[in-house]
Amino acid sequence: MFFHKMISPGRKAMSQDVQPMDNLSKEMKKGAPRGFIAKLLKHSTAILLGLILVILFFSLARASVYKIRPYERGLHLRGGSFVGIDLPGWHFQIPFVDTVIGLNVSERPGTIDSLAAMTADDVTMDVSLLYTFRVVDPVTFALEVTEPEQIVAGFVKGTLRDVVNTRTMDDVMHSRVDFNQELLTALQQKEARYGVEFVLVQIQNASPPAEVMTAIKDKMVAKQLQEKAIADAAQAETLADSNYYTAQKKAEGDAYQITRLAEAEAQRIELSSEAKVAGLRAILAELDGKGTLAEQYIQVLIAQELNQNSKWIITGGSLPILDLTGATSVTQSSATP
């Protein structure tokens, strides 16, 4: 308790000394913003001028440095006069004095959607074309030619029409490779005039008028019909030859068969006749000298044989000679043996 009492008066003294210092710091804090703002207002002109100078410096620095991309070339002009061609990379220029024109020198396409051109055989065809070119002389292309892309397109159209005028309709429609090469050669003759290089030329479509297409289709149909007629005629001729050959061979076979049958029949008749003659001779030899009855029998046999092979029957003795043609019978006496 005593110790606490001994210390408490000192604490009171120290607390009394700290309070004035806190009050002073609070007053300083309240006055600091006012003083800073007052200083800014006092030096505002100088600060604004400095900011303007900094912005101007960075603007000039940015305007004096430029970049040319790999597919570009820069046309450097100073005071309107051509200075040189800038290659890809970073470059410097004098602001407000120099001018740089960036030009794309990579391959670029061009198309002709539809062009009416007259062929050498007086047929108007509708032609479409695809072509590509690149800029090889930026100075000529950008500085010596006004609207260069339009002029190049017009030059391609004129050259295409001129080449079509020297070709027939059939060549334009079916000889595309030769036509493209001839057109590319004609375009390459004027490349230096425009500062370009033509890379590709390709005909996309070449069609004649509708009436010509109809005539072509009719001609193709007529040709197909003609070829079909020729094929049918050849087939019919082959079939006729085949039928003739078959009929000829059949006739030859029938004739051969008839000939063989006739020969066989003749041989049969000959053999039969020989057999009959041999039999008759055997009978005659057997009856020879056997008397009157035998002779009469022989006469009957002879009459039967002659009846089969002749119109006359010759008898002997009192037998008449019979005319089988219908004439009157004649009696012939025969000597008795």
Give short descriptive properties of this protein:
single chain, 337 residues, alpha+beta, Tetrahydropterin Synthase, Chain A, three-stranded antiparallel β-sheet, 21% strand, disordered N terminus, disordered C terminus
Describe this structure in words.
This protein has 337 residues and is an alpha+beta fold. Among the domains are: 113-208, Tetrahydropterin Synthase, Chain A, CATH 3.30.479; 210-274; 288-331, no CATH class. The chain is 61% helix and 21% strand. It has a three-stranded antiparallel sheet. Strands 6-7-8 form a three-stranded antiparallel sheet. A three-stranded antiparallel sheet has the order 9-10-11. Strand 6 (108-118) and strand 7 (124-135) form a beta hairpin. Helix 4 (148-165) packs across helix 6 (176-188) and helix 8 (210-287) packs antiparallel against helix 9 (292-309). Residues 1-18 and 317-337 have low confidence and may be disordered.
